[in-house]
Amino acid sequence: MSHSADSVLAPGAANRRTRSFGSTLAILWWSAIVGAIGYYVHRDALHYLFDYTPVSFKHFWPERWVIRSHIALAMLMITSGPLQFSSWLRRRHATVHRWSGYVFLSTACVVAATAMYMGLHPVEGDVVYGVGLFFNAFFFLVSASIAYYAIRTGNIQVHREWMLRAFVLAYAGLVIVRVIEDMSFLEPLIGAVALNDLSTWVNWTVPLMITEVALQVSRMRVRTNVTA
Ligand code: HEM
């Protein structure tokens, strides 16, 4: 449509177009998020559940029950996570929203506990790598706990914000860490050990800070609109 035709659109039509552009962007954004989850679960996680052999588990074989519990519940958790952010589901099917929230928060406890244990006993890296994962899991548990406490005390906005932080930290532990590890073109520049170490710190600190900036900016915009 030409620019001149745009300028004569009724305000209602213009609003509808902006909304549908927003919905398209949201669908693309969530498709990319869910697609990346599916890719890494398929590539790195499923064989621990369906190929119960020392060859499949490699150095995780001595702690096979820790890694299996971690992965089985993490898969449940990461698939229930995106459902929490659907406003359509929240409005139309509040019970599904509530139950998927319980699944996310209860599985989070086991995922975080096993991740903290494995972070303190890392098999795929050194102490810097392990401590990064430990804190990823620790702050994930803290965020999930605050989200739970907020909803129990009726603070819906606070609950939403901490659920978002919890999901970002879970996504960091599955997807972003692997995206960084896969950047093998950095190896000749910084070395394999540094890349491995960076992957478990950059994966959650940077996305968490970006989330924080987005939350604060949207809060400021709401306040400006209210006072205007
Ligand atoms: C809070 C988020 C998470 C944290 C902090 C975390 C942490 C960890 C830790 C510490 C390990 C052991 C690494 C080692 O010893 O070298 C591990 C392994 C693993 N985790 Fe998680 N994890 C998280 C979420 C997830 C999710 C959502 C999945 C999805 C299924 C997942 C799948 C795996 C897999 C497949 C492994 C085995 C390592 C491999 O073969 O790549 N994790 N995780």
Mean pLDDT: 92
Number of domains: 1
Q: Which structural class matches the secondary elements?
A: mainly alpha
**What's the SSE pattern?**
HHHHHHHHHH
User: For the report, how would you describe the main beta sheet?
Assistant: none
Straight-line N-to-C gap: 33 Å
Helix content class: over 70%
- Determine the number of helices (DSSP H or I, runs of at least 4 residues): 10
Bound molecules: protoporphyrin IX containing FE
Task: Detail the topology: elements first, then pairings.
Layout: H1 3-7, H2 11-50, H3 54-57, H4 64-80, H5 87-92, H6 94-120, H7 127-152, H8 156-181, H9 187-190, H10 192-227
Helix pairs in contact: 2-4, 2-8, 4-6, 6-7, 7-8, 7-10, 8-10
The protein binds protoporphyrin IX containing FE.
Protoporphyrin IX containing FE binds next to helix 2, helix 4, helix 6, helix 7 and helix 8.
Describe the structure.
By secondary structure, the chain is an all-alpha fold. The chain has helices at residues 3-7, 11-50, 54-57, 64-80, 87-92, 94-120, 127-152, 156-181, 187-190, 192-227. The longest helix has 40 residues, at 11-50. α6 (94-120) packs antiparallel against α7 (127-152) and α7 (127-152) packs antiparallel against α8 (156-181). The protein has ten helices and no strands. The chain has one domain (32-227). The structure holds protoporphyrin IX containing FE.
